[in-house]
Design brief:
heterodimer; A: Rossmann fold; 6-stranded parallel sheet; two-stranded antiparallel ribbon; 10 strands; disordered N terminus; B: Rossmann fold
């Protein structure tokens, strides 16, 4: 799709939804949508700084620019609801209520992180709040998520699964197997496609021949919806409908959020494959100031509130970084733990050697 | 006790485990109305209903992935892959998700799933109904790989696998399903997963195998006794990963000779690992080089009877290897 056309669709839907869809939304809810977007932005920008300062190793995959989608699809989930995200959904942990201290301990690979230093910085999960620890193989989490949704249905629980991927994942066979299975069994799952225009360097035009990825839903017999992924109200409204459907037992929904990744695929990708004008255009559609303007029209915003929020979030981030940096590192041989439900330490560390005894027979040491 | 075939033992374990624990469920192609391609799941749909016995779409990726997710959420899925040859669409799920889930979450997200797979050749199944690709999974820490050789073990180990909190690959050889019968308890019992068995006592050579070829190895041992008077100790690995090394090391330390028998390809088959462990940990006990009896390194198994025969193990091939090793 030519960029201009996408722009036109996007800006149109934003205004339309603001005018028509959000009048019913509670002011407190609108303010929370905003404050969570700000929180996600500040956390990720700080992580990027820490990376450039060399304060943690590995890499990071920021969703900066995509906050409306991250927040709108995951606000107010129940603790027992599951989120299955990819490498770019680190901030969904924040949305699920995982403490910032644990998230930064994870970034730093410390013993205090939920996985005690095993997964890459962006791959954070948290079992107590049902965030699946991500894998780098794309489309994995919505496949596992489909199974969790199957369990919820079998256990007659009122819970849902939110499975997030980029648009690139929709090209994988496993993605189709998962969506099809969820559709056949009417599972309580929402497949969210964060279409940020690029799978690493490959533009969406080389990923698919269709205009809206949500139209793939028709092939499986479930509803498919495309929204402006930079309009948090639009995303939230569409997501609420999908979650209500899932909770009521009516089954899965495919939700495409068209958004944009401000930075490269990761911190080591300068993203030279993109037209700078395109990046500038999308930065001008930053979801955070857009929401500020919207809140202002409803008399729900002030500059002072933003400053207070910013100071509060930054203070929490500072404390979390302090916690992470003062946390112990894992012991080297802890690499042997948590492979199975039983220990393999003896197997790895104590190997017996059998030898013939001079008087006949054998012994081992 | 009742005299049961291997497939009866599997079926009986599934019935009893589903009865015992409502979180156990079955998913796979043809497992419901048809009762499974080999009738392993016969009668389960009628007894437990379509919510717990799911005839899945033709999609191994979805079968395994959905099972992993359900296991994470408190269920104990027992997916069936009709032929292990068909498992490849589920490999990402098995090797990258199931195997790593516990590790990557430091033990907080687990996958108590038992994947039943039918393996093995010798029935003219050709390239896509004959494989014994156990090594794909052995090379994947986090997965437990089990391959019982008798009806008694099949039932007891399947129960253990289902109750175990790790993802288990449960290999059932199609030629074992109806070829042997033995007394199997009708009451509840389990066989531990991580312990090899000495199937035949001997003093002159240790033969190590598992699954169907374990049965061939026992026959070979008997022939060697009749022919040469030599007593062969036969070790049943039972579980291929994690491997119980002590049982065969102890035996080799006593007999000083070893032959390893399996139906998978030679290169990096379990025989390579068993040989390496013996070389590392009991080299001084050896009086002869270790020999492997395996399939050659070709895609398994070619369909024409002559080609299949060349690649498939037999009692004669095992006897020949044992004789060569005894001669050294």
């Amino acid at each position: 799709m030519p960029l201009g056309a996408e722009m036109a669709i996007a800006s149109q839907s934003m205004e339309t939804l603001h005018r028509e869809g959000s009048q019913q939304l509670d002011p407190e809810l609108l303010r929370r949508l905003y404050s969570y977007m700000l929180r996600c932005r500040l956390v990720e920008e700080r992580i990027r700084v820490l990376y450039r300062q060399g304060r943690f190793a590995g890499n990071y995959f920021a969703a900066v620019g995509q906050e409306a989608t991250e927040v709108g699809t995951t606000l107010d989930l129940l603790p027992e609801d599951t989120v299955g995200g990819s490498h770019r959904n680190f901030v969904t942990n924040i949305m699920k209520g995982v403490p910032l201290t644990l998230l930064f301990a994870h970034i730093y690979g410390r013993k205090t992180s939920p996985d005690q230093g095993r997964s890459a910085p962006a791959h954070c999960g948290y079992a107590p709040l049902n965030v699946i620890t991500p894998a780098s193989t794309i489309a994995a989490q919505q496949n596992i998520g489909t199974g969790i949704a199957l369990a919820y249905k079998m256990q007659k629980k009122p819970n849902v699964v939110v499975a997030l991927t980029g648009e690139g994942a929709t090209s994988l066979g496993l993605w189709h197997e998962a969506v099809n299975f969820a559709a056949v069994h009417k599972l309580p799952i929402i497949f969210v496609i964060e279409n940020n225009g690029y799978a690493e360097s490959v533009p969406v035009s080389l990923q698919t021949a269709i205009e809206d990825l949500s139209s793939k839903a028709a092939g499986y017999g479930i509803p498919g919806v495309t929204v402006d992924g930079n309009d948090v109200v639009a995303v939230y409204t569409a997501m609420r409908e999908a979650i209500d459907r899932a909770r009521s037992g009516a089954g899965a929904t495919l939700l495409e959020c068209k958004t944009y990744r401000w930075y490269g695929h990761s911190e080591i990708d300068p993203a030279k494959y993109r037209d700078p004008a395109e990046v500038e255009y999308w930065k001008s559609r930053d979801p955070i100031p857009a929401m500020e303007r919207y809140l202002a029209t409803r008399n729900l915003w002030s500059d002072q509130w933003k400053q207070e929020l910013t100071a509060e979030i930054n203070r929490e981030v500072d404390e979390a970084i302090k916690f992470a940096e003062s946390s112990p590192k894992p012991q080297e041989d802890e690499a042997l733990d948590h492979v199975y439900s039983f220990s393999i330490r003896d197997r790895e560390l104590k190997r017996k050697i059998w030898s013939p005894k001079p008087e006949g027979g054998t012994s081992w040491r | 006790m009742a005299v049961m075939t291997y497939i009866d033992a599997i079926n009986s374990a599934l019935h009893e485990e589903m009865e015992r624990d409502p979180s156990v469920f079955i998913i796979g192609e043809d497992v419901g109305k048809m009762g499974g391609a080999f009738k392993a799941t016969k009668g389960l749909l009628e007894k437990f209903g379509s919510e717990r016995v799911i005839d899945s779409p033709l999609a191994e990726g979805a079968i395994i992935s959905s099972s992993i997710g359900a296991a994470m959420a408190g269920m104990r899925p027992v997916p069936e892959i009709q032929f292990v040859d068909f498992i490849t669409p589920g490999m990402d799920a098995l090797t990258q998700q199931a195997a790593k889930l516990r590790y990557r979450s430091a033990g907080t997200q687990t996958c108590p799933m038992t994947v039943r797979v039918c393996y093995g050749g010798g029935v003219g199944g050709g390239l896509y109904h004959s494989q014994s690709n156990t090594s794909w999974f052995i090379h994947c820490p986090g997965l437990v790989v089990v391959a019982p050789s008798t009806p008694y073990d099949a039932k007891g180990m399947l129960k253990s696998a289902i109750r175990n909190d790790d993802p288990v690959m449960f290999f059932e050889h199609k030629k074992l399903y109806r070829s042997i019968k033995e007394e199997v308890p009708q009451e509840d019992y389990t066989v531990p997963l991580l312990k090899a068995a000495v199937r035949r006592k001997g003093t002159d050579l240790t033969a190590v195998s598992y699954g169907y070829t374990l049965q061939l190895t026992l026959q070979a041992a008997e022939q060697v006794r009749k022919k040469l008077g030599a007593e062969i100790e036969v070790i049943d690995l039972r579980t291929l990963s994690p491997l119980d090394t002590d049982t065969f090391l102890e035996s080799v330390a006593k007999t000083n000779r070893a032959v390893v028998v399996h139906e998978d390809n030679r290169t990096l088959g379990i025989g390579a690992e068993v040989s390496a462990v013996i070389a590392e940990q009991a080299f001084d006990c050896l009086d002869a080089p270790i020999l492997r009896v395996t399939a050659p390194d070709v895609p398994l198994l070619p369909a024409a009877a002559e080609l299949e025969h060349f690649c498939t193990l037999s009692v004669e091939k095992i006897v020949a290897a044992i004789e060569r090793t005894l001669d050294r």
